[in-house]
Design brief:
This protein has helices at residues 2-36, 41-50, 123-127, 140-146; strands at residues 56-66, 94-96, 107-110, 114-120, 132-136, 149-156. By secondary structure, it is of the alpha/beta class. The protein has a 6-stranded mixed β-barrel. The N and C termini lie far apart (61 Å).
Length: 158
């Protein structure tokens, strides 16, 4: 009888290990799909709405920087007539996004940068499969020093 109990316990333990590894695998797969952009922001947002509706969600994003008034890169304007896609003037705290993933007006918190508001867009944001955010810097050097960062960005529930 002890052999049966031991055999049962071993089988039960193996079953629990298998189920646990399957659950972890599925969670890793969902996180990877969100990070790689296989799941859209709206799907993530809809999922969050079905939950407890927190005040914010956190997503992994590619964060780059641009300096609209320091045209050393040759891709920005001369700084005299620049406006964002929403009609505001570029300034520290403005973020360029793909509005199909993050709507204009959305409040963001970007580690290493601080608070920002989605007010602008650009071709790079629209062509990136995942979540990409471009933040305004005062100078080309600051933008270059920022480089490309992959960080967990906090997005206020909209």
């Amino acid at each position: 009888m002890n052999k049966r109990i031991i055999t049962f316990m071993v089988c039960l333990t193996l079953l629990l290990i298998i189920v646990d590894s399957l659950l972890i695998h599925n969670l890793k797969k969902e996180y990877k799909e969100i990070c790689e952009g296989n799941v859209s922001y709206s799907e993530v947002y809809t999922y969050q709405q079905k939950q407890e509706q927190p005040d914010y969600i956190t997503v992994r994003a590619k964060v780059t920087a641009y300096a609209p008034f320091d045209n050393k890169s040759g891709i920005c304007n001369d700084g005299t007539t620049s406006t964002t896609a929403t009609g505001t003037r570029p300034r520290i705290g403005v973020a360029a996004v793909d509005p199909n993933k993050i709507p204009y007006g959305t409040e963001l918190y970007i580690p290493g940068y601080g608070n920002a508001v989605a007010e602008d867009t650009g071709g790079a944001m629209r062509s990136y499969d995942g979540i990409q955010i471009d933040v305004v810097m005062n100078s080309y050097e600051e933008a270059i020093n920022w480089g490309v960062r992959y960080v967990d960005v906090t997005i206020r529930n909209i």
